Amino acid sequence: MQKKHLLLALLVTALWGLNFPITKLGLASIDPLLLTALRFALAALPWVFLIPRPQVAWGWLAAYGLIFGVAMWALINLGIEQGVAPGTAALLVQFSAFFSLGWGVLLLGERVRRQQLLAIGIALWGLLRIIGDSPGQATSLGYWLLLVSAFSWSLGNLIIKYCKVQQVLAFVVWASLFAPLPLLALTWMEHGVAPFQQLPGQLSGQAVLSLLFQVYVATHFCYWGWNLLLSRYPLSRVAPWSLLIPLFGTLGSVLILGQGVTLDDAISMALILAALVVGQFRWRSWRLGRSAA
Fold first, then answer.
1. CA angle in degrees (0–180, nearest 5) for 91-95-97
2. Could you give the dihedral angle defined by the CA atoms of residues 158, 161, 167 and 168, in that order, rounded to the nearest 10 degrees?
3. Which helix (H) or strand (E) holds 113?
4. Per-residue pLDDT tens over the stretch 25-63
5. How far apart are CA 185 and CA 175, in angstroms?
6. What is the 8-class DSSP label of residue 20?
7. 82-112 pLDDT, tens per residue?
């Protein structure tokens, strides 16, 4: 990757990591499905009237919007509501890196290098350590919801690669248009009209700031940056960067929510960081460089 794209990947993962504890602040007062619906409504409106529709078929826009809004972020919010800590939630979603690598090999003809296989093993070790050491307050349903959201994210990555999206921000804005109505319908089916009636009294300053961060930082900016990287580099090169998200998510949980980090957590996160380094570094080129020197 070019240096500017390396910095973009680092910034996007840092902001996405912070989004998990910041989302937790919004979930403290607003129903998770309704909060997700508001997020994607604001991500789409009024911007669809200002930004031309990308040159992508309506079907792909709808598919990405439903995967992105309903099958991914709604499930993440529901998982956090079920009791999964934001840092652990950020970590479980990173199983998408393994799913994405698999899609890249099976459907896009990409090759996985030996060091990437080693990186998968190291990262999986770190992920399982944190899941095993997680406090017992998170429900099994919450864990499964987050794993399904990880699989959904990998499908979204695959759509970006298949469509060869060029107008990245426009794609995110227009795809977001398809998420609010299903989410509002699911909210009504689950809880009736109560969440809608209670919403005006729940829009505290903390909830509004959480929602605005989710819309303009985590959705508009971060998905613009992430999809830009996917449009320029192989899926197997971009996906492993998402492994940094739980590191920033845990740090954000410490700073924003006051949650502590144990020695075991630190070791597990170090394993994930090591996996990223192993997966991104081209060892063969480094050895050839040393031989030439």
1. 110
2. 50
3. none
4. 999 999 999 999 999 999 999 999 999 999 899 999 999
5. 18
6. H
7. 888 887 788 788 777 778 777 777 776 777 7
Closest by CA position to 84, among listed 24, 125, 148: 24
Which residues contact residue 2 at a Cβ distance below 8 angstroms, ignoring those fewer than 6 apart? Answer: none
CA angle at 13 for the pair 10 and 19, rounded to the nearest 5°: 140
Contact by Cβ (8 Å): 118, 277: no
pTM of the entire predicted model = 0.81
Q: Which residue's structure tokens are 């005006």?
A: 200
Amino acid letter, 33: L
**What distance in Å separates the CA atoms of residue 180 and residue 35, rounded to the nearest whole number?**
10
What would the two tokens of residue 14 be? Answer: 């840092």
- Tokens at 136, concatenated: 């017992």
Residue 221, SS3 per DSSP: helix
Residue indicated by tokens 């993962």: 13
